[in-house]
Design brief:
two-stranded antiparallel sheet; 7 strands; single chain; Rossmann fold; alpha/beta; 147 residues
Length: 147
């Protein structure tokens, strides 16, 4: 009986964690996807350490998805094909509607500071990822604190 109670408590804790886990919005080109190389493997390995749902977000149209290898993503890809871009809050509002999410349900990291500012302006916890530095330790810190 005591073992069953322990198992039930563990199950409830696991379900609670899943219910409150945030979806990670991952910038595509110049962040998760490196132009000419494909998926940034070290970042992918880091993201895989989190059980959270991940969505790769991009502005790319059909041609750009192939050109930049966004189609090689190992996560769901969301794009509005520049109608509008991520620098417009409407992009995120449409994403929320599409996935039945709210700003409180997601965290976001992105290399374009204007897209970060747009996301922050509607309440999305966002992190500016410096695509030149590729500092995965700082990204991990953001994810650990917010995911």
């Amino acid at each position: 009986m005591e073992n069953n109670l322990i198992l039930i408590k563990k199950f409830i804790n696991h379900i609670t964690l899943l219910l409150f886990m945030k979806t990670i919005l991952v910038d595509a080109v110049d962040t998760y996807i490196i132009e000419g190389e494909g998926v940034f493997e070290e970042m992918h390995e880091l993201l895989e350490t989190y059980p959270n749902k991940k969505i790769v977000v991009t502005n790319a149209n059909d041609e750009e998805i192939l050109l930049y290898s966004v189609d090689k993503s190992r996560y769901d890809v969301y794009t509005l094909k520049h109608q509008p871009n991520k620098t417009d809050t409407k992009y995120f509002e449409k994403l929320f509607k599409h996935f039945n999410l709210t700003a409180e349900d997601v965290i976001y990291f992105e290399h374009n500071i204007d897209a970060v500012k747009a996301a922050q302006s509607i309440g999305i916890k966002s992190y500016y990822y410096d695509a030149e530095k590729k500092d995965l330790k700082l990204l991990k810190q953001f994810l650990d604190e917010n995911a």
